[in-house]
Amino acid sequence: MSAQVQPPTARVCERCGRTERWDDNLEAWQIAREDGEKQVGNPHCIHEWDINGTFNPVTGNVNAD
Fold first, then answer.
1. What is the pLDDT of residues 27-63, one digit of tens each?
2. What's the rounded Cα separation, in Å, for the pair 37 and 35?
3. What is the pLDDT of residue 14?
4. Sequence ranges of the domains in the chain
5. Can you give the chain as a three-state secondary structure string?
6. What is the pTM of this model?
7. Which residues have CB under 8 Å from 43's CB, separation 6+?
């Protein structure tokens, strides 16, 4: 199996707590709901998403020939 790139499916703003999930049908990030309530955070925040160097998007065998 060759290497595959797996994009993130969820993200959280480290500053305000806004939570979003990737919607494959819309091909866009959507505000997540928790207990029926949207996790909007601060609408004026310049979001700092928690996707950083610890997230590894590569799956499978990287050295496949």
1. 999 999 999 999 999 989 999 998 776 777 777 776 6
2. 6
3. 93
4. 4-50
5. CECEECCCCEEEECCCCCEEEEECCCCEEEECEECCEECCCCCCCCCCECCCCCCCCEECECCCC
6. 0.70
7. none
